[in-house]
Each structure stands twice: as C-alpha cells, then as structure tokens.
Amino acid sequence: MEALQSGIIDRRQAQILKSFESDFKPRPVGGLAVLILGAGASVARPREHVYISRPFSQQQFSTLHQQFTTNYEELLVRELCTITTQNVSHPSGGEREGSNESQFRTRELEWRRTHPEILKAFEGEWIVIEGDEVVAHDREFTRVINQARSSGIPTPYVFFVEPKSEDVVNIGL
Amino acid sequence: MVSVIYRHRFNYREFQSGRYPILQLRLTYPGNDDAIDVDAYLDSGAERSLFDGSLLGAFEIPLINEKPKTYASTAGAAVVGYPTT
User: CA of B37: which chain A residue's CA is closest?
Assistant: First the structure.
C-alpha cells in the first residue's frame, strides 16, 4: 500500500503542477481563488489541502474536482495489475483470460450479490471465494485460510457470512 | 464558502441488502509474505481502523493484548480492541 500511496501523491502533484500551468496563470482582479498547498508539511512527504472559494463557476469547480481527486478504484486496479505482471499471477487480477473485470474483486462481489441462497448455507462460517467458486469454508478462520492456500490460492478473498434475520438491521458499529 | 475536495473517490457497492461504502483491502504484515483480501466498511468519522482479531490468524501472529482499549460508537455500542501498528 505504501507504493500505492506514493503513486497517488506523485500523480496528484503532477496534476497540481499541470493545473498551475493551465489554470492559475494571472487572472483578472477579483479572483478570490485560494490554493493552499503543503499544509501539514511536517510529515515526510507533503500533503495537499485545497480550499476553493468563489468566484469559480460550477464548470471550473467540476474541472478542478476531477483534477484534484484520484479515482481510488482505477488506481488500485492499475497498481495491482502492475504487481501481478511483475510477480506471480494474482488469481483475481485483471489478467484472467476472457474476463472484462475492471475493478478489484468485482467478479466475487457480483457473485455474492447474485447468490444469496448459496451463501445462506454458509451462515456463521468464514468463506473464501475465487471468481465464481467457493474455494473453502469453515467456522474457524485459520482453517479456512489454510484450506484456500492448500488449493493454490495465495491471496484468499475471505469474509464472514453473517446469519441473516429480518429483525436485524445493520447500522455500523 | 469553503469546499473540501477529497483525496479519493470511489463508488458505493451494491452489497447484500443495499448500497454501502465498502472497499476491498489487501492485508499484509511486515516480514510476512502472506496476504488476504477482505472487505472494509468505510466510516469517514472513525478515528481508528478496526479489524476482526481473527484476521491475524492468516499471518500466524498473536493478537497483541498488552494495552486493550475500548472503542465506542456515538450510539454507545463499544468493543474492546488491541492497538497495533
């Protein structure tokens, strides 16, 4: 994740510099745009906090929003694809033949969403899914991880199947 | 008017009974080559990241329990956690 975070910061810094070149050349008097960079600069790498006040138009604001935010999912997928091509293949990476997945664990999440009846059989257990397949399940977390790794899954996608009840509503912690 | 632009953006995921701010994380531990992928529920107001202690079993390391702390929600529910880095 450290490499990923560095990638995010590097990309954002490049975006900021580009924005300075294109958008922050001398503007007419009255421009109240305030751009504060480097707040919290006591850390090893600078952090950017951007505060924008009027008179940006909505279109300008939207453009800046696109430039100054990072699509976490796209960046994560790109980083993971880079990692998988450098090391052993990741079973859920973007390299699976015939797969059009573009997001991390999209296939597994879709399977979970569309197969509640199968998941019901595993209530109260930990379960490992790889693609569309249930690789392992057990009430003991360590056992289910060991089963998955024994099946050749180096990085299992694991979750606990909560027993469902119509009388229970999840509201977070 | 001050507007805050967030560093990251991502989509809510349709998940079981609704749409939630759920991320998939890959957990690793320093000095250990093992990794697991897990779901994470994003709580933008949380001061700490909490993980199920069972997950440490994937890395064959003990749960650190020297200084347990109680983590409470604004609704009053509380759990005991063991800070680690």
Answer: A157
